[in-house]
Structure formats: C-alpha cells, structure tokens
Design brief:
single chain; 485 residues; 9-stranded mixed β-sheet; two-stranded antiparallel ribbon; 11 strands; Glycosyltr_2/OpgH_subfam; Nucleotide-diphossugar_trans
C-alpha cells in the first residue's frame, strides 16, 4: 500500500512465481495507485521516488565504501613510527556539563592516547554537580580545565567549544612550548564526556597528510550495549560509519559526527565567524547538531571530509526509549535546520556533479523520511477502514520487500561482514530487528519538524549511567592547569 504496493488494476501473475512481461510491468506502474483518493496519489508517488532513490544511493555508497576500504588496507596497518603523528599537535576538547559520572573515565582514556604532542582541554560549562571537584582532583601535565561561569556558562555546546578555540589560540599557541605552532599542524579532537577514544587515535594522521583534509570522523560505537535498544544504536552507528560515511570519502564529503571528530585547526579558523556579541568562533550558536553544520561548512570552504576505518570512539547508549526519543528529536531537528545548506552545497565549486547530487540527497534526508512515513500511515488508515483493497501478487510483494527493506538489510550485511552460513542467518535476523528499531524511532522526524516550525530550540541533556572506573595506572601527582571564562 505504501509506495510500491499494487493497485486495483494490477496484473495478476499466473502462476504465482512467473516473472511478468515488460508490458505487464508498465501497465502495473501506470495504474499503480488507481483507486486511491486523488489527493493521496502525489504523496504515494513521491514516496515511491524516495524509496527508489534511497535504494540506488545506498547501493552506490556500499560499492564506493568497499573500494575505499580496499585502498586503505595497507595504510591502516602502518606502524606508529611511520604515521607522521609527531608532526601534529593533538588538542582534545571535552565539553562537560554535569558530567560527574563519566568525566574521570573519559579524561583517563585521553591520557592514554599514544601521541607525541598532546593537550587535553576540558570545558567545565557551569556544572552544578561534582564535575568541577573531580576535575580539580585530576592530575596530569597535559590537562587544562577551562571553567565557564555565568552569564557565559550553559549557553550551548557551540559556545563552549568556541571558548576553547579562543583559548587554544591565545594561550596554548600564544605562549609556552607550543607558541607559534602552525594551525595546519594542529588537530582539534572533540570528545564528549562519555567518550572512550581509541588509544591508537594517532592513526588518523594518515588522512591528514593530505593538506586539503579538514576533518576526519572516527567510527562511533556503543560500549554499554546490554539490551535491544543499545545494541540497535551500536549497529546504527556501525552502518552509518561503514557505509554512508566511508562511501563518501572519495568525494571528500564525509561529514563530522560530533563525538570523536578530528578537525584541522586551520580548517576551523577558515570558517570562524563573529556572533552577535562580537565573539569569534567556528561553531555557530543555535545549531542543535553543531557537528553536522560545521562539517558542511568545512566542505563548502573547500576542505575535504574523511572517515577513519580503524579509529573508534565508544560512547554510552540510551536504554530508555523515552530518552532515546528526546535525543533523536534533537538530532532530527538539527537535520531540519541544515536544509539551509542545500543551496551552498549545490553551488560548491569544489564538488563534481555526482558528489553534489549525493550531498543534496543527504541533506533532504528529513524530507524523504517524512514523505515515506506519511505514506505508511496513510496505507494503514486506508486498509483499516476499507478505503482501498490492493490486488497482491508474489512478484509485487517481493519487489516491495526488496526496495523497502533491502537497503537496510544490505547496510547491516556490509557493516557486519562474516563468512559462513550461520553468520549469514544471524545477520539476516539482526537486519530485520534493526529495521524494526528504525521504524520504532521513526516518529521523531515529525516531532522535530513541529518543534522547528514553532521555534523551539531548547534541549534536555542526556543523563549518564554509572560506569566502572577506567583501568590504568594511577595519575601523576601534578596539578592540572585551570582557567576561568
């Protein structure tokens, strides 16, 4: 009944498994939605176009991702001494607002990252819990705590990151051992307070050897995947990084995903703007997905975006469906917000025609989701009230299944490559569970649209769950630097 289901005049196939002729297929398509209310036909045709477009897009990205993974196989095995990581200064920025549960774990793991030149800059954004006390008790020469106080504090993640960016230029690069360090050789890494960055994060030095690469996104995974919802989130991130991100590497349009994003400081500097208060910074205030926004602006400025195949950042998933809805509503609203980046993307002189088409399809994601979802709702209503009675055939059912469920299944199989019959059957089962999860959270696209239309941009912070202490040696007795903003 949704885009792709048979209409009243669909041709019945005899016997059931006989493949129809070209003429029968054309007749079926012409009369696909006969019997539907006139006002609903454009919606179903639009949904059909969206489904077919998504199918083609995913197949193209899977093929390109497979080629990129093959090309990077030798590079990914490169030892640290040949990586060139010591040519860069690695600055890890950790925005922290009421993060007493996870901040010690996150900072401890950053201290274990194996890079020659390192600074860790934690932004305590006006925390009212014990975050400040915990940070004051941490000790490491690489660690600096930038404390934001009212009225500057709690203005948003973008403002906190911009404060850290200004501090980096004024203090870290303005004086001391790293004074005058070339911004082209400074890698700014955003790590959320629940993030567990791979100790071998130096491996992203390889793509940064290309001076045009402005950002590299690490693979994001969920470490507390103890139930269906968190397991599905882990698979979701795995599919996104392995297919959608990696498939865009050759175009240079892989976007930034927030936690675990690496940005060249020179690239951030090139997109910095002044806010209404006259403060300068790369991240724009008011963007609910500041990572997606800055990734797009870097691409518009001529920088290339890349995706790592080997560096991973693990973060906490959400066990509560209510909390997940709240988080994904914010993400979805951020996707609605960046629709204003469509025109700059189409005018981007640094991208070819195919890359622009892909960027357009990527930015249209919330609209595509809204149209397909609406067709599903209308199908249920029409069938439930007997307003439409489709004529089914095995061929039509299989065709509908392939185009609607096929893309998600293909993405799961590509992200979870396992040889053998048992892994194949397991992946098939997991893929269908993943499809169920995708439809479970589907309503957020409409909730986000409503919030965007009525001008609601506020968001609730995701609550952390308790974790085990981070392993490793005890910290040194040195005291971290502190700054107040």
């Amino acid at each position: 009944m949704t885009a792709g289901l048979a209409g009243d005049t669909a041709v019945a196939l005899h016997p059931a498994f006989t493949v129809p002729s070209i003429g029968e297929i054309l007749y079926f398509l012409i009369h696909l939605y006969d019997g539907l209310p006139i006002w609903a036909i454009p919606i179903f045709w639009a949904a059909l176009v969206c489904i077919l477009g998504s199918f083609v897009s995913l197949i193209v990205l899977i093929i390109r991702a497979a080629l990129i993974r093959r090309e990077l196989r030798d590079v990914d095995r490169q030892p640290r001494e040949k990586s060139g990581e010591d040519d860069f200064l690695w600055v890890f920025m950790v925005p922290a607002l009421n993060e007493e549960i996870t901040i010690t774990d996150s900072v401890s793991r950053l201290l274990e990252v194996e890079v020659t030149h390192k600074r860790i800059l934690v932004i305590n954004d006006g925390s009212s819990d014990k975050t400040g006390e915990i940070l004051a008790g941490l000790a490491a020469p690489e660690l600096t705590v930038l404390t934001r106080v009212p009225p500057n504090a709690r203005q948003g993640k973008s403002e906190a990151l911009n404060d850290a960016w200004r501090y980096l230029h004024a203090r870290i690069l303005g004086s001391g051992v790293y004074a005058g360090w070339d911004p082209a050789r400074v890698i700014v890494t955003i790590v959320d307070a629940d993030g567990r960055l791979d100790p071998e994060a130096w491996r992203v030095a390889a793509p940064f050897a290309d001076p045009l690469v402005g950002g590299v996104q690490s693979q994001v995974r969920i470490y507390n995947r103890h139930g269906f919802i968190t397991w599905a989130q882990d698979l979701e991130f795995g599919v996104f990084g392995s297919v959608f991100q990696l498939g865009r590497v050759a175009w240079g349009t892989a976007n930034m995903g927030g936690n675990g994003q690496f940005n060249r400081l020179a690239a951030l500097d090139s997109v910095a703007e002044e806010d209404t208060a006259g403060n300068r910074g790369p991240w724009l205030a008011g963007r609910l997905t500041e990572d997606q926004d800055i990734g797009l602006r870097l691409i518009h400025a001529g920088w290339r975006g890349a995706q790592s195949t080997v560096v991973t950042i693990n973060q906490q998933g959400l066990h509560s469906l209510r909390a997940l809805y709240r988080q994904r509503t914010r993400w979805s609203q951020g996707a609605w917000q960046v629709l204003d980046r469509i025109w700059p993307s189409m005018r981007n002189p640094h991208l070819g025609f195919v890359a622009k088409v892909d960027q357009l399809w990527y930015l249209l994601t919330p609209i595509v989701q809204a149209i397909v979802g609406l067709s599903v709702v209308l199908s249920v209503i029409f069938l439930a009230f007997g307003l439409y009675r489709p004529h089914w055939s095995i061929f039509i059912i299989v065709l509908f299944y392939v185009f609607s469920a096929g893309p998600g299944i293909a993405g799961v199989f590509f992200a979870r490559r396992r040889p053998g019959l048992v892994p194949f059957l397991m992946n098939l089962l997991l893929a269908h569970l993943y499809l169920f999860y995708s439809w479970l959270i589907y309503p957020v696209v409409y909730r986000a649209l409503l919030r965007q239309l009525i001008g609601r941009n506020s968001w609730a912070k995701t609550k952390r769950e308790a974790i085990a202490p981070a392993p490793g040696p005890a910290p040194s007795p040195l005291t971290p630097g502190t700054e107040t903003a």
